[in-house]
Design goal:
Strand content: 25-35%
Shape: globular
Mean pLDDT: 92
Number of strands: 17
Number of helices: 6
Radius of gyration: 22 Å
Distance between the termini: 65 Å
Low-confidence stretches: 1-5, 50-55
Structural class: alpha/beta
Amino acid sequence: MSTPSMQPTPRTIVVAMSGGVDSSLAAALLVEQGHRVIGVTMKTFCYGENAGPTKTCCGLEGIMDARRVCDVLDVPHYVFDMEDSFGAAVIDDFVSEYAAGRTPNPCVRCNSNTKIPELLRRARQLGADSIATGHYARRIQRDGAPAIARGHDVKKDQTYFLWALPREVLPFLEFPVGELTKPEVRERARALRLATADKPESQEICFVPTGDYADFLARKLGADHAALQAGELVTADGTVVGTHGGYARYTVGQRRGLGGGKSQPLYVLQVRPDRRQVVVGTDDQLAAETVQVDTLNWLVDRAPRTGDRIRVQIRHGAAPALAVVEEIDEPAMRLKLDSPLRAVTPGQSAAVYDGELLLGGGLIRA
């Protein structure tokens, strides 16, 4: 006689639904598994004071698409207003980082400081057991504790955005699409006739749907702020080679907007807010052999130590680079790279891995 297959114990799971195909299928998969699903869309900024397009991941169209999917799945759908907390944790940080001459990653702040912790808080109010998102990531067990590993689809892996999560949320966080590739997600969504199956992905910063972040900064900081005033373009030795229209408009590795007529293409090497200078140089000068990281956050029991070999990823979509922990003094560390990396950008995230396991990470400072 064959033994019946074990079915997971039905649980109540709150799913963060942006109105995209990934979170839509995440909810559908959990329904298929027999869980009681509650769909939640978080109202952040995009359609509050900003009159820009509504087709972003958290715009009005996203709310309506999430609701359509929940109707098909026959599960409840709620909208939570998070404009105040999102503005304080994400938008204010975005503006202050650019004013300080750094290039922030608002998606990391959003996940770790706002969306996922707040989703868990609201889930507990609803009596739910856990929460789920549509991230391409996997929750695994490592040494008896929950941990995060890269998603099966290497090209879509989103663990880079999760290094700053509070570790205490991990036992309650699930990633239903983490074992699938993007084409498989769309195929499954089409088979289920979900309205979002072929919806294009949103690439822009949700609260800057026009893509013009300099205009956004001008509205937040004021057009007369030092970060938006003209200053000098200088080489590493201090030679003035031109002018710029505000250092907040530049990021390390940028080539556009530096003018032509030079014997070699110029790139941004550094931003010096205290002098209102943008340092430029040649492509070979962008290579860095070390990375300084602070604001460290670890998602595992054993954090890296001096001398450990790890992999570090310095931007979304970049290949992880081999490095050695040269020095660590919480909450900061210095990594020595096996091979130089191009355009290591202050303000961006450095996610740290052991193979596919996300150990944690920090913010690049130099």
